[in-house]
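Let's practice the habit of predicting before peeking. Look at the sequence and jot down your guess about where helices and strands might fall. Then scroll down.
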Amino acid sequence: MSTHYDVVAEPEGRWWIVRVPSLEITGQARNLAEVDDVAAEIIGLWLDCPTSEITTTVTLKIPDSIQKILDKASTQEKEAEQLARDARTTRSAALHQLVDGGLTITDTAKLVKLSRQRVSQLITA
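Done guessing? Here is the structure:
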């Protein structure tokens, strides 16, 4: 019969802190590959049972300070994507004015230093 435990692993410096919240015990692993074994070992020692009777589900936790940075990066990426969409819309409007004003797509492309294909894409989008 095996007993299952949820485990949380979080990097701290060059180590991984391995926590078993339900037992309020903690261990440490040198790398992520060792986390399962360390978890089973500390649970086995705590409960005085063989590690073969222990199964775990490990959840990786990003440190809060790093998560804030990653969240900021995600926000910046979304903002950049929106800015890129806005720029395409603005560029498309400018190209439409040139083509609607009588320039050929080829001449418009040369004028704005884009390929003819790109100008065609932007004015048909």
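How did you do? DSSP finds four helices and four strands in the chain.
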